[in-house]
Write a structure and sequence with these properties.
- It is a single chain.
- The chain has 298 residues and is α/β, with parallel strands linked by helices.
- A hairpin with a 3-residue loop joins strand 6 and strand 7.
- Helix 2 runs antiparallel to helix 11 and helix 8 packs across helix 9.
- It starts with 6 loop residues before the first strand and ends with a helix.
- The model has no long low-confidence stretch (mean pLDDT 96).
- The structure holds 3-hydroxy-3-methylglutaryl-coenzyme A (HMG) and magnesium ion (MG).
- Belongs to the HMG-CoA lyase family.
- One of its GO terms (molecular function) is lyase activity.
- This is Hydroxymethylglutaryl-CoA lyase.
Length: 298
């Protein structure tokens, strides 16, 4: 049977905005976070502590973390690829940090400028220092079903990096389809490998919707009992180092599907649609979310 409850992490402020060419004002980012928590999101990925030369949109990370109004019961996470990122992030008091590796060597090089092995060596002290500070560490594993530079990625390659991340103490494994090429059986095969090393409660899916497969893939994961997913309000986003990759699955679309399945998310879909309309308006475009558009047209 399917899970009765699902936790969604809205990664819109981070994954959604990181690839936007036009600078988005810090206050608009903070407002987006406010609207998401108003809608009932309990986990929000706020920003990333990466090089501003690589990802200029995230250069205001400290300001965004300062500007958000934190609500009890909501967890705020940030990306930290190395000690420099963690050291900058710690004073802003994130509830969780994310270290991000790839199942493909080529993507690791393009995204974080090092090999998979080097990335694990960089993450190890980050994980230790985060734990020392009482902060949970999520791991993201990019290109778990396909790589924009290498093509197919096998479950064996996924499992190899899952084990490396588990070996340095990463608490949670997010299986990511960076370029949205996954289809249900392939995604299940990758998930299975994560579930060999992490308990069900500590595995999540992160699906980009480039090929329109994300909802189907989430359903395939629900069938395995996975009940934790990343999604991005309004379907914003894309990775700067994965050409042509579009946004994450839209949070509105996921909530609509889960509502229809009778699965509780604690999210108010109308307020979520408003959050999507707000940020789409800031960006000067109509929401990518099909559900968002349909509900706005009502
Ligand atoms: P590097 O150039 O290899 O690092 O970058 P370095 O240690 O050689 O340092 C070079 C310069 O960067 C130095 O500055 C450092 O101070 C600075 P300079 O002396 O030249 O002025 N630097 C930093 N500045 C700020 N914050 C930092 C930091 N680290 C070094 N943390 C690095 C390595 C990882 C930093 C770089 O490659 C980078 O920032 N990459 C961007 C990665 C990124 O943000 N990608 C998108 C997010 S991941 C994603 O979207 C996938 C995900 O959604 C899952 C999925 O869909 O697959 C999570
Ligand atoms: Mg992503």
């Amino acid at each position: 049977s399917l899970p009765s409850r699902v936790t969604l992490v809205d990664v819109g402020p981070r994954d959604g905005l990181q690839n936007e060419k036009q600078p988005v004002a810090t206050e608009h980012k903070a407002r987006l976070v406010a609207l998401l928590q108003d809608a009932g999101l309990k986990e929000i990925e706020v920003t990333s502590f990466v090089s501003p030369k690589w990802v200029p949109q995230m250069a205001d990370n400290v300001d965004v973390m300062t500007a958000i109004e934190r609500r009890p019961g909501v967890r705020y996470s940030v990306l930290t690829p190395n000690m420099k990122g963690l050291e900058a992030a710690l004073p802003t008091k994130p509830d969780e940090i994310v270290v991000f590796a790839a199942a493909s060597e080529a993507f690791s090089q393009r995204n974080i400028n090092c090999s998979i092995a080097e990335s694990i060596a960089r993450f190890a002290p980050v994980v230790a220092a985060a734990h020392e500070a009482g902060i949970k560490v999520r791991g993201a594993l990019s290109c778990a079903v396909g790589c924009p530079y290498q093509g197919e990625v096998s479950p064996d390659e996924v499992e190899r990096v899952v084990k490396l991340m588990q070996g340095i103490g990463v608490d949670h494994m997010g299986v990511a389809d960076t370029i949205g090429v996954g289809t249900p059986k392939k995604v299940q095969a990758a998930m299975e490998r994560a579930l060999k090393h992490y308990p069900l409660v500590e595995v999540s899916g992160h699906f980009h919707d480039t090929y329109g497969q994300a909802l189907t893939n989430i359903y395939a994961c629900l069938e395995m009992g996975v009940h934790h997913f990343d999604a991005s309000v309004s379907g914003l986003g894309g990775c700067p180092y994965a050409k042509g990759a579009t946004g994450n699955v839209a949070t509105e679309d996921v909530v609509f599907m889960l509502n229809g399945l009778g699965i509780d998310t604690g999210i108010d879909i109308d307020k979520l649609v408003d959050a999507g309309a707000f940020i789409s308006n800031v960006l000067g475009r109509s929401p990518v979310s099909r559900v968002g558009r349909a509900l706005l047209a009502k």
